[in-house]
């Protein structure tokens, strides 16, 4: 393990590393990912490249090994282009507690600001206290709840919607 993994935007050449990290995440926290292991394994190299490009993925690399990833998903109709969704967001367990998630979140915020995005949104598994605390520490506030958001082996799992303003906007009621 290097002391400080290198942070950079993922490209097509990182497809295998991205897939390995996503598979590790799905195996550890199946309710935190929308894709199953089987769905990830069925992806073609073109599918993987498209996901990397669409999600503006940034990763932390220890040599050639991807140890953390975060995505920013802007787009959609003009009326909602001021918002982007954060995800996926995952750090391998042995790399947690070293400030890497903070570096990835800072990269997402920087990318969003560069693109003129005013709001970041994300969904997080309601039972993932560590992630909820992390996002709150980074200025995200709970704005909603989705019961039975995902089902893992037919077991319903709930999600919490969180949002963060990147502008000096007061939270309305």
TrEMBL record:
Source taxon at top rank: Bacteria
Matching InterPro entries: Acyl_CoA_acyltransferase, Bact_Acetyltransf, GNAT_dom
PANTHER family in UniProt: AMINOALKYLPHOSPHONATE N-ACETYLTRANSFERASE-RELATED (PTHR43877:SF2), AMINOALKYLPHOSPHONATE N-ACETYLTRANSFERASE-RELATED-RELATED (PTHR43877)
Molecular-function GO terms, alphabetical: acyltransferase activity, transferring groups other than amino-acyl groups
Residue stretches in coiled coil: none
Pfam family for this entry, one: Acetyltransf_1
UniProt entry tagged with the keyword Acyltransferase: yes
Key words of the record: Acyltransferase, Transferase
Domain N-acetyltransferase: 5-167
Protein name: Ribosomal-protein-alanine acetyltransferase
